[in-house]
Amino acid sequence: MSEAPSRISHLRIDDDDAPSEYEMLGEPEVMMEKGYHKIIVVDNLPPVAKDRYDRLLTVLKKIFAAFPIVDITMPSGEDGKTFGFAFIELANESSAEAAVKQVNDYKLDKNYTLRVNSFEEFAKMDKLSDEFVPVETVNYQPPMDLYTWLLDPNFRDQFFCRFDDQSEISWFNRNEKKPERCIRKPNMTTTFLVWSPYGTYLGGFLKQGVVLWGGADTWHYIKKLSHPGVKIMDFSPREGFLVTFSPEPLPIDSSDDKDRHFVAIWDVATGEIRRTFSILKDDNGNVIWPAFQWSHDEKYFARLTADGILIYESSTFKAIKGGGIKVANIREFSWSPADNIIACLS
Q1: Using H for helix, E for strand and C for coil, what is the string for the chain?
Q2: What average pLDDT does the segment 103-115 reach?
Q3: pTM of the full predicted structure?
């Protein structure tokens, strides 16, 4: 008697058409978790014995109370004493990333400061090869020299003229009848150029923001600061910051008129906005410019208010403790050119 043909006898192990385990059982496929993106490692915990395990676990839960904890595990040895680290599984990857940023360097007490890292970072370290791979060297490219004009043998200054779309920068020497042209460039600005206090930069205006030029021999492009519709700019005394104003509100602000900001302070070196402000106007509704007065060392900047002077620190871009100086009926003020002293008229 011959055997009935079997489907299984005709299948190969690598047959792509073969039914999966879940298809055979009629169950939905279980999706396995790939990676450890939701797990963080908390290091530098105090090693504790069994009798203090629950207490330390409670402390960890309080520290990470702002995050959706799934599980906390603190490995221990044969004697029951923990090894001084813990694995914490959170509900999602974004919570794990936030926990690493916010809790890392948390001071548990005077002897223990927590070190929090993603488990993925440890996985990467485990995959590092033991074979030495030399670091690829990159030829050093010296930065642009912005102070070549100081080396001019005749100790001359520079000035610029603009016509049509051309900007011409020339050397000035009172003993020469005709100035010596240094460079002529098109499209350096749409309106006019602004010198920085030491002559290191020239600031130009574009529709979408400010462009900075530098290098007295060539006046190359340095960077662009995006402030649409910008109309005015003002450098700080030591050229560390740039203040810009536009009648168009900055796109990062609220649609509410009272919260819309039109003035920005930029870090010249990095090109980043340090802080924004609303329009500053006088009693007649005119825009106050310069928007701020800077101290000689740029540690502070200040502006008039209805009842005094509001002073900010440039290190934090926040108002100093107490806000500033109250002066009734104040009209104007000025910083000392050598010390952090303010004189005012009321």
Answers
A1: CCCCCCCHHHCCCCCCCCCCHHHHHCCCCCCCCCCCCCEEEEECCCCCCHHHHHHHHHHHHHHCCCCCEEEEECCECCCCCECCEEEEEECCHHHHHHHHHHHCCCECCCCCECEEEEHHHHHHHHCCCCCCCCCCCCCCCCCCCCCHHHHCCCCCEEEEEEECCEEEEEEECCCCCCCEEEEEEECCCCCCEEECCCCCEEEEEECCEEEEEECCCCCEEEEEEECCCCCEEEECCCCCEEEEECCCCCCCCCCCHHHCCCEEEEECCCCCEEEEECCCECCCCCECCCCCEECCCCCEEEEEECCEEEEEECCCCEEEEEEEEECCCCCEEEECCCCCCEEEEC
A2: 90
A3: 0.60
